[in-house]
């Protein structure tokens, strides 16, 4: 089973950028879809973006389309989430997760392996 570790969170002003990393160990990303999710205080966890290792397809929530970019570096076994034009409403704990049944931003149940999360705080 793949183990995931997120990094790259922090405090940034509105309009700024951050790049989150999701590093895998125990297995490669081959055969997995890797998703980024976030959870703000008092809110449900929501899907942000996902990349499929089978064909490289990428998916984005409407709220981040055009601002966030997901990518993968297979040599480093790492998936990235580049976040630009950050807004205060992007403030949340961001998690990456692995799913061996394809990408989904609406159904979190298939994602069996989760990282510990990294905090992103965007100040206004």
List strands and helices in order, with pairings:
Elements: E1 3-7, E2 10-13, E3 18-25, E4 33-39, E5 46-52, E6 58-60, E7 68-73, E8 78-83, E9 92-99, E10 113-114, E11 118-123
Parallel strand pairs: 2-11
Antiparallel strand pairs: 1-3, 3-8, 4-5, 4-9, 5-6, 7-8, 9-10, 9-11
Produce a short descriptive summary:
This protein is mostly beta strands and 124 residues long.
Walk me through what this model shows.
There is one protein chain. The chain has 124 residues and is mainly β. It has strands at 3-7, 10-13, 18-25, 33-39, 46-52, 58-60, 68-73, 78-83, 92-99, 113-114, 118-123. Strands 2, 4, 5, 6, 9, 10 and 11 form a seven-stranded mixed beta sheet that branches. A four-stranded antiparallel beta sheet has the order 1-3-8-7, with no helix packed on it. It is globular, with a radius of gyration of 13 Å. The relative contact order is 0.32. The model has no long low-confidence stretch (mean pLDDT 95).
> How would you classify the helix and strand content by structural class?
mainly beta
Instruction: Tell me the fraction of residues in β-strands, as a range.
Output: over 45%
Q: H/E order of the elements?
A: EEEEEEEEEEE
Rounded Rg: 13 Å
Mean pLDDT rating? 95
Task: State the helix count.
Answer: 0
* Form type: globular
Strands, total number: 11
Stretches where pLDDT falls below 50 for ≥5 residues? none
The profile of the biggest β sheet is:
7 strands, mixed
Q: Roughly what percent helix?
A: under 10%
How far is the N terminus from the C terminus?
40 Å
């Amino acid at each position: 089973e793949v183990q995931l570790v997120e990094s790259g969170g922090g405090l940034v002003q509105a309009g700024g950028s951050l790049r989150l990393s999701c590093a895998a160990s125990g297995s490669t990303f081959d055969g997995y879809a890797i998703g980024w999710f976030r959870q703000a205080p008092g809110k449900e966890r929501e899907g942000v973006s996902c990349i499929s290792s089978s064909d490289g397809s990428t998916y984005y929530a409407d709220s981040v389309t055009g601002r966030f970019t997901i990518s993968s570096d297979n040599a480093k076994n790492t998936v990235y989430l580049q976040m630009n034009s950050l807004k205060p409403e992007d403030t949340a704990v961001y998690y990456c997760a692995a799913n061996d049944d394809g990408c989904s931003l609406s159904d979190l149940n298939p994602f069996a392996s989760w990282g510990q999360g990294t905090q992103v705080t965007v100040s206004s």
